Amino acid sequence: MEQVVQTAAGSSFPGTLRNRLRNTWFADLYRKCDKFKRQVMWRSEGERILLQKYHRIHGKPLNLANPETFTEKLFWRMVMWNRGHMPARFARLTDKYAVRSYVASAVGERHLIKLLWHGDDPRAIPFDQLPREYVIKSNHACGQVIIVKGLADREAIVRQASNWLTRDYYWADREAQYYRIPPRILIEECLFNEDGSLPFDYKIYCYNGRPEHILVRNHTHDICPFFDANWNLLDFSDEVGAVRPWVPRPENLDEMLMLAGKLSEGFGFVRVDLYNIRGHVYFGEFTFTPAGGAIKYDPECWDLKHGEKWDLALDIKAEI
Q1: I want to staple 209 with a disulfide (CB 3.0 to 4.6 A). Which of 52, 60, 105, 265 is the partner?
Q2: What is the pTM of this model?
């Protein structure tokens, strides 16, 4: 039986025939037509994919008419934004470079991680002028991070960063806030705890400008406990097999919550990611659609509890 290969566009194509046609005029024409189709039909295909994804995760159709749970409202946001009903502020605040000016004006530059270099040509990275440790990341995607400690493999970094710049992260999970963000590379100071370890990432879930609960992640992403604003460990998870250990309460938790509250003003929901290094709080990023919507609450009652906190009317208010 002839092998069938799944293409990026989701259609099947006989594997043997595809290999024969590789690098021919027909293959080039096919790629151009597929790209054209993608650009013309991205909204309708994106909505179909999002609706299918919600059904696959939750085993039921998405209630677009009257979303009530957190995950229903999350997918409602993703679908509406994919249709084009997204104020431009969300794309600006998703851009890890553009957001810096907003954070500086809202809470002050002292809460920004030091920016060592930025640009759209990785070959121009001034490696000889950089410190021994630093972080390289893209501004237009999620999870594209290189932590450099010591001697850097310059060719590998340039190759990887160049690859990042060719990709529009929208196509990963159809999160419209990423669509066509002008890509660039950022190099930031690397933050360390006193013992030299990498810091916790405090992901603060804010509803209508009010911090409600905090997800704590370590660098290796193998723990994910949730705490309330009083640092009580909460009895739920939002992913399968979650490890939820108790971790010490940050001494300046009140300051973190205050900063998250200021940064989240005017949003029905946003997750504000912060770092806390020796008592100094740094902004990480805004997250408007956590995990690209791939969230499954256990127990499910927390899905409704968090959904009740989210005022969707704030999603469609005037732009900043």
Answers
A1: 265
A2: 0.86
Is the domain of 309 the same as that of 236? yes
Judgement on whether residues 269 and 290 belong to the same structural domain of the protein: yes
Give the contacts of 253 (CB within 8 A, at least 6 positions apart): 231
Confidence category of residue 234, pLDDT binned at 50, 70, 90: very high
Q: Say what the pLDDT of residue 18 is.
A: 63
In this prediction, residue 272 carries a pLDDT of 98
* Residue 11 lies inside a defined structural domain of this protein: no
Is 46 a member of any domain?
no
CA 164 to CA 159: how far, in whole Å? 9
Q: Which residues contact 1 (CB under 8 A, 6 or more apart)?
A: none
Name the E strands within 201-268: 201-207, 210-217, 226-228
**Residue 161 tokens, joined:** 């960063």
Q: Which has the higher per-residue pLDDT, 114 or 39?
A: 114
Query: Domain of 299: which CATH number?
Result: 3.30.470
**pLDDT for the residue 28:** 66
Q: Which of 162, 190, 218 is the last residue of a domain?
A: 190
Residue-range definition of the domain harbouring residue 178: 114-190
Burial class (CB in 10 A: 0-12, 13-18, 19+), 296: middle
- CA–CA gap between residue 263 and residue 210 (Å, rounded): 10
Mean pLDDT, rounded, of the chain: 90
